[in-house]
Amino acid sequence: VSEQVDAIVIGGGVIGLASAFALADNGRRVALFDDHVGRGSSYAAAGMLAPGAETTPEHACLAERSRRSLDMWPGFAKSLNSVARHEVAVHQVGSLFVGWSAGDRRELQRYLDVARQQGIDSTPVTRSADPGAFVGVATRVSEGHLIPGDSYVSPEDVLAALEEGVIAKGSLIVRQRVLACGHDSWGVSASTASGTWQARCGVVATGFQHSPLSILSSSPRQLRPVRGVTVRLQDNELMERPVVRAMIDGRPLYVIQRPGGSVIVGATSEESSHEVVEAEAVRTLLHDACQIVPHLDRARFVGARVGLRPATADHVPFFDELGETRWAWSSGHFRHGFLLAPLAALDAREFAGRVAP
Ligand SMILES: Cc1cc2nc3c(=O)[nH]c(=O)nc-3n(C[C@H](O)[C@H](O)[C@H](O)COP(=O)(O)OP(=O)(O)OC[C@H]3O[C@@H](n4cnc5c(N)ncnc54)[C@H](O)[C@@H]3O)c2cc1C
Question: Atom 38, ligand 1: which residue's CA is nearest?
């Protein structure tokens, strides 16, 4: 096979798919390559769009990008919904932050202070003043903080809709791994086991993986995988509620209770490239979730998912144009790939407009 398209995207996680969709939506014929579309780190994600909830002192510089991308989500979902079968809804339910012990509450306060410095406001709330905010939360928790703007999307729907959107716009999803890429003054090329594709420009969005794409070795960027596990439960009694975010015995936890009763509990975080769900991760997540939201004791266990988050040293993502080539590298989205997908998509679109108008 040898085919020519306008743009190549390597990697079909949320960043590659969003980039391909933006390029296709902009009238380009794209070929996106991945032998396991949607099964990288994106497969394990919870889909939170929560700049406030994700802000830690270490990630302070991310806040502005995060808020900007959150603002872009409704428009991004709308353009997807105009072409895809799976509907993407942005659920703006807010987050309720709670701490289990006095030490946990102090730790939480530290996070909220950082968030406030970055313009993300939270409101203190007590159970006696607003019992509705604490429905389902363990009775020993009597106070917390609300961040109203926090939202979530269904990661499954987003990935499915992006795939459908790319195809609906006349572009291709090639379910093959790219083994090598090249470039010349005209453009770029990507080779799989069955052929070579050429295009005017290309975006590499392979999460934490970069070998065997030698083009990336020219970049000084270092990525490391940070393993995370989420657990899926089903509780048919549930109604949609604010995302409950907790600090429990020093461990961060979130519980997303979605319409239809599906629940996502997350997430562990370990420096590891071993993509397995260890029993201890499931045990800890379930233990902590059932402490904070006790009726989850009765929920049906659906499964656990693991992903390797792509992390840079400072946890800030990047969109780098690679030297004199028409390749760009988009990665390092760490805990925020879904939140930051509209911004990554815009970066890809602007890059293509610049190097291959
Ligand atoms: C447990 C967990 C919970 C999370 N929760 C959230 C959340 O609530 N909100 C949020 O915003 N983010 C969340 N994240 C982070 C988010 O999932 C990541 O930032 C995001 O998935 C990164 O997307 P990506 O497309 O860069 O990488 P990936 O999803 O890893 O995709 C990379 C793709 O590239 C493909 N690939 C690699 N090499 C090649 C090659 N040579 N040829 C072709 N294809 C190739 C792989 O097969 C893979 O499909 C979470 C992550 C984890 C692990």
Answer: 206
